[in-house]
């Protein structure tokens, strides 16, 4: 055989086969990236429910039969698309002080997205490896896919302080009945159900004969069951409203102006003016760091607040605080409560701080400034706390970012009657960030069975009832107040009582149910 013939018969087919494999890998990586990017349209403010089965089915199909490394690439591409577009709004915060941080905006978002994409990549690798080696049926493959996706989301919510943003379950936030199962299994459990049901349609297409019909009916049954369970909860009786009137103040102060010394008086005067508009209230709510200074040290400012508060009324406001210590001054991001005399009643210090926003991790090694103004890094508080105030139902406080963490907002030993979420989304302008933040707050309301009241510097202030429904809101860019009654709490939910143990129970129960026919066959044999 001459060299030409050998090349045509041996070498050339091998080269063509490698090229074909690379093209197939490239097409799957591209499919993964596009599907990941489209997940953004499943979350608020878009909430396109029909895209949910499209994006997760695309990933499910794209991972079948792949090796370890190729599955990692496809899963990572999916995550890069999801986070690259889904958290692009973070770049807005770098442009508040563009001359100092503007150049870091794109690299920071790209780096964070690439890092977060590792979690979907881990889920992809585990699913592809086990599915490839285990010869699983289509139903068990869907269950395996949903299980590893949920494990990856849970890890993302806990590793390195966690970032449980745009969880798969948040695609259901705008659908009242479909978000209610979070009261039993939490947002991570609802993600499991969402991804499992979303993968069933394509699994049915890949199946044949009777199995196709079985999986199709299972998909319909899954949706119907989630809707029915949620509808029953919405129709169940709730406790009587506590008869407490709230006033939420949204000052709408631009972030770039907020901490300028020359604007301090104007900012404070704006909040006082809005607070004293006609109308009656029992609790006055100001947002995170509404007062640009140390209010407990400012006797004059507290006297002006006292003059604005009717007798027997209480103000809850976000303020920075500082405490001398042996190691120097310690700074805290707090919510403090004041009565009509201007005296501090109690307070709460934020315990889940934002990396690089409120402190710099590994401060001794990283020569990086934090994005927020201040004299030093904030110190974390001791954890969730329930505040007891005169004439006010027991309240838990979550400051800004803290509201995104399932199961870590309420003191398990001292259950409150409502949650106050003081926040400042002015950092993110008119992007989709504030809408996504609001979605997290709505899910906490469902999980805990408690109303969540949001006071934002600008958008989105809201009154959210215990089923996650928005009763009233002020959007981004609006200046004004919300006068509303405090919605009633529901009895403690299963998730409020047992936390993520309910997620584990759901996954184990699902696998036990799916494996039951195989056990029966083994026993019969």
UniProtKB/TrEMBL annotation:
Q: What's the protein's topology in the membrane?
A: Multi-pass membrane protein
Q: Name the pathway it acts in.
A: Protein modification; lipoprotein biosynthesis (N-acyl transfer)
Record's keyword terms, sorted: Acyltransferase, Cell membrane, Lipoprotein, Membrane, Transferase, Transmembrane, Transmembrane helix
Gene3D superfamilies reported in the protein's UniProt record: Carbon-nitrogen hydrolase
Identify the Pfam families for this entry. Answer: CN_hydrolase, LNT_N
Among SUPFAM superfamilies, the record links this protein to: Carbon-nitrogen hydrolase
Q: What class of enzyme is it?
A: transferase
Q: Which domain of life is it from?
A: Bacteria
- Domain CN hydrolase: residue ranges: 249-488
Gene Ontology biological process terms in this record? lipoprotein biosynthetic process
Query: Which is one GO molecular function term here?
Result: N-acyltransferase activity
Q: Which residues cross the membrane?
A: 25-42, 48-66, 73-91, 103-128, 135-152, 185-207, 213-232
The signal peptide annotation in the UniProt record is: none
Q: Which family does it belong to?
A: Belongs to the CN hydrolase family. Apolipoprotein N-acyltransferase subfamily.
Name under which the protein is recorded: Apolipoprotein N-acyltransferase
Q: What is the lineage of its organism?
A: Bacteria, Pseudomonadati, Pseudomonadota, Alphaproteobacteria, Rhodobacterales
Gene name of the encoded protein? lnt
């Amino acid at each position: 055989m001459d060299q030409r013939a050998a090349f045509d018969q041996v070498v050339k087919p091998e080269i063509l086969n490698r090229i074909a494999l690379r093209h197939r890998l490239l097409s799957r990586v591209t499919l993964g990236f596009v599907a990941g990017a489209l997940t953004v349209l499943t979350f608020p403010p878009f909430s396109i429910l029909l895209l949910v089965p499209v994006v997760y089915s695309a990933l499910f199909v794209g991972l079948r039969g792949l090796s370890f490394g190729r599955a990692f690439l496809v899963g990572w591409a999916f995550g890069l698309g999801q986070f690259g577009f889904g958290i692009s709004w973070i770049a807005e915060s770098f442009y508040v002080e563009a001359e100092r941080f503007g150049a870091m905006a794109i690299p920071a978002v790209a780096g964070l997205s690439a890092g977060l994409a590792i979690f979907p990549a881990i889920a992809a690798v585990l699913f592809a490896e086990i599915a490839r080696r285990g010869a699983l049926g289509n139903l068990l493959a869907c269950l395996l896919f949903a299980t590893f996706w949920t494990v990856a989301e849970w890890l993302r919510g806990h590793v390195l302080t966690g970032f449980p943003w745009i969880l798969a379950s948040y695609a259901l936030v705008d659908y009242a009945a479909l978000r209610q199962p979070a009261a039993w299994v939490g947002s991570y459990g609802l993600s499991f159900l969402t991804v499992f049901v979303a993968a069933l349609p394509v699994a049915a297409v890949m199946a044949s004969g009777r199995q196709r019909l079985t999986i199709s009916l299972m998909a319909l049954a899954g949706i119907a069951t989630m809707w029915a369970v949620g509808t029953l909860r919405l129709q169940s009786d709730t406790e009587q409203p506590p008869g407490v009137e709230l006033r939420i103040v949204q000052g709408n102060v631009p972030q770039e102006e907020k901490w300028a010394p020359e604007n301090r008086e104007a900012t404070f005067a704006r909040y006082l003016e809005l607070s004293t508009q006609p109308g009656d209230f029992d609790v006055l709510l100001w947002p995170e760091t509404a007062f640009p200074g140390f209010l407990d040290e400012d006797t004059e400012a507290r006297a002006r607040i006292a003059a604005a508060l009717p007798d027997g009324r209480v103000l809850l406001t976000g303020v920075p605080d500082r405490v001398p210590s042996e190691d120097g001054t310690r700074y805290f991001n707090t919510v403090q409560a004041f009565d009509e005399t201007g005296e501090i009643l109690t307070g709460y210090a934020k315990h889940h701080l934002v990396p690089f926003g409120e402190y710099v991790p590994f401060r001794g090694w990283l020569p990086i400034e934090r994005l927020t103004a201040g004299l030093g890094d904030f110190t974390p508080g001791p954890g969730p706390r329930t505040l007891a105030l005169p004439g006010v139902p027991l309240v838990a406080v979550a400051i800004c970012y803290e509201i995104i963490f399932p199961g870590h907002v309420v003191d398990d030993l001292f259950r409150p009657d409502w949650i106050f979420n003081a926040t400042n989304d002015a950092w993110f302008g008119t992007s989709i960030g504030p809408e996504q933040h609001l979605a997290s707050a709505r899910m906490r309301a469902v999980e805990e069975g408690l109303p969540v009241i949001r006071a934002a510097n600008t958008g989105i202030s809201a009154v959210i009832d215990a089923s996650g429904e928005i009763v009233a809101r002020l959007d981004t860019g609006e200046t004004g107040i919300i006068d509303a009654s405090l919605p009633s709490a529901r009895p403690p939910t299963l998730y409020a009582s047992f936390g993520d143990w309910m997620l584990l129970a759901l996954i184990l129960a699902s696998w036990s149910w799916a494996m039951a026919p195989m056990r029966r066959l083994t026993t019969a044999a």
